[in-house]
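Bumping my old thread because nobody answered last time. Still need a sequence for this structure:
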């Protein structure tokens, strides 16, 4: 069976952009489209998570325009990114998907669910927050310093993604070993232009706007909100806010974890997501 480590990188063209993607797992049902975090490419997913999900359903990983092996210019807004991903699904001939959006990918997933509701059967919002919510307008200084370096290191990822406890940091080191394991056909690293465009999108999304929160009431897809109990990048409290405003939402918070709780608890998250999607 094809796995995260062996899945070939494929390409699909839409509106002049060639999107790099990988598709693997059990075909036949609604595929799970996974949307990545700030500066993340195909190889920044945790294989322990993606393979556990792919054991039950087909999984599709994709690079945004201008990211990794995808061509085009990186988008400077969440809305533009959402339109690009919709075009990508159309290029693959997908009439319905489930979506798991992580961090920035969760912003994009919310927009897709709002502007193309019939496309999204079920929605998983992981380590993310709603447009205009308090505490969303950029990141606190220490997180920004580690996230926006010219070249990300393992130390930066551990600081941003995992709780500053011994137990969480140990799980972070295990994750670093897993996501670096693939050697054949690794995706291209993201550029500084991607970093700057995506941070523009993060800031635009987070401009304080109480009225923008009402958008969440328009999400029709059953939604699972997932978060770590001490996210240093996107405040955990806004996940509770999302879950309260999306009409058909439930929330699960994982202990002793931060932004990348899904890479700290890959088996547990995969089980929770699989149960929800089923």
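Sorry it took so long. Here it is:
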């Amino acid at each position: 069976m094809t796995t995260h480590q062996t899945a070939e990188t494929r390409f699909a063209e839409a509106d002049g952009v060639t999107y790099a993607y990988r598709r693997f797992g059990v075909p036949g049902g609604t595929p799970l489209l996974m949307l990545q975090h700030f500066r993340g490419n195909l190889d920044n997913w945790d294989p322990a998570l993606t393979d556990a999900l792919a054991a039950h359903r087909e999984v599709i990983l994709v690079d945004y325009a201008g990211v990794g092996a995808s061509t085009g210019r990186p988008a400077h807004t969440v809305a533009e990114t959402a339109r690009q991903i919709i075009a990508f699904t159309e290029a693959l001939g997908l009439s319905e998907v489930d979506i798991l959006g992580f961090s920035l990918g969760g912003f994009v997933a919310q927009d897709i669910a709002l502007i193309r509701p019939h496309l999204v059967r079920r929605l998983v919002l992981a380590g993310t927050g709603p447009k205009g919510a308090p505490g969303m307008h950029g990141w606190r200084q220490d997180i920004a310093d580690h996230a926006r370096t010219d070249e990300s290191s393992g130390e930066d990822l551990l600081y941003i993604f995992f709780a500053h406890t011994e137990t969480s940091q140990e799980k972070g080191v295990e994750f670093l070993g897993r996501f670096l394991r693939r050697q054949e056909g690794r995706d291209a690293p993201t550029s500084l232009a991607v970093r700057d465009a995506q941070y523009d999108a993060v800031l635009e999304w987070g401009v304080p706007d109480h009225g923008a929160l009402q958008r969440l009431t328009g999400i029709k897809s059953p939604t699972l909100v997932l978060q770590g109990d001490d996210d240093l990048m996107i405040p955990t409290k806004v996940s509770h806010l999302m879950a309260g405003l999306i009409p058909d939402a439930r929330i699960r918070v994982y202990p002793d974890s931060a932004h990348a709780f899904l890479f700290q608890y890959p088996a547990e998250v995969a089980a929770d997501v699989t149960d929800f999607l089923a």
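The mean pLDDT is 97. Let me know if any region looks off to you.
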